[in-house]
Sequence to fold (409 residues):
Amino acid sequence: MTGPRITIVGSALSGNKGASAMLEAAIQTLGARLDDPQFTLLSMYPAEDAAQNVYSNLEIVPAGPRQLGVTINSLALAYRVLPFLRRILRSRSRAIKALAESDVLLDQGGITFTDGREKFLLYNVASILPALNTRTPVFKCAQAVGPFQNPVNRWASKTFLPKARTIVTRGRITHEFAEALGLTNLVAGADYAFSLELDGTEHEAVAEQVDMSFFDADVVGVCPSVVLQMKVDARGGDYVGQIVAFIESLRAQGKRVLLVPHSVRTGTDKTHNNDLPLCREIHSRLRLGDDLLFIDRELSSQQLRYVIGRCSLFVASRFHAMVSSLAMAVPTLVIGWSHKYREVLEMFELEEWAFGHDELTLDYLGERFTALDNAREEVRAKLDTHLPKVKERSIMQADLIATLVGAAR
Fold:
């Protein structure tokens, strides 16, 4: 018998390094629990992901939004209702072959089926529907779902979420939303990216590109987000101007600043899953100096986590930049846009260190950062206390998936 086969959707190696961290955490943890597992990634960016794929047991299969939503879903439906075509469908479609032969589909979408993101609802459904049609169990890795007040989202959620074998909620608020919807296939967990382990090569790899002596003093990491920029600017704010002024105020206090994008797509100026153009604009308006370090290239998820871990304090707007800083026990201030940030910080008793984009002003950001700076030892103590339990809740997913795979074989 060949080793177990696992198909993954909703994550990537390129672009958003949070997605990469979830994907690579799954490969790491399941590789330690299963005998010779083979992985297939249904990829939104197949060429970029293939270029960064260092895993011999990971196959990259193209699955852009249109290809996934139309082609793969149509073929999966045909696979279900026309049994006599199944052999030819498996031979003609790599995606159908992978799904039909997989023991489980891992859905690693970070936030799905939630009010206010109805434009992504079709993708949320399209990500899991092919597996349902090929009778492949769906395991939704730790993610945020809900609230479910919008009628369209509520209908879709009540229709499709109960069909998943398991839904891992990554915080109290999501779990309460899901329970209120009547879902019973729930497990309370923590984001899979907390399970990502460094392999010890990160320092040498990063040092080839970055002068690591920069981190010998107090360094504040700042991770902007184009998602936040759009939300702030839509209400008449000036996100870039605020971040520039905030960074200059930190430098005036004698702190060194690391400007780092956590979502980068090399070779394109498109801003979807790509904060590098935004960071370049911010950097162009900053005064140059030895107290400023801008990482203007794409690092691996492990390298990025290592660099974040060298900071003394961190200001995050990307969700998984927050996860990486918390995983490295770095006191973190979060500017967010949904409940997904606060519910993770709650696990550390640190929810007071998050605020919404609607509260963002230069003065308020400065006040909250000063408060975090003054409380850094207390915050670090809470991180040290709660991090082992959070990591246990994260890696528990690997045990559940391994059990599911074992039962399917």
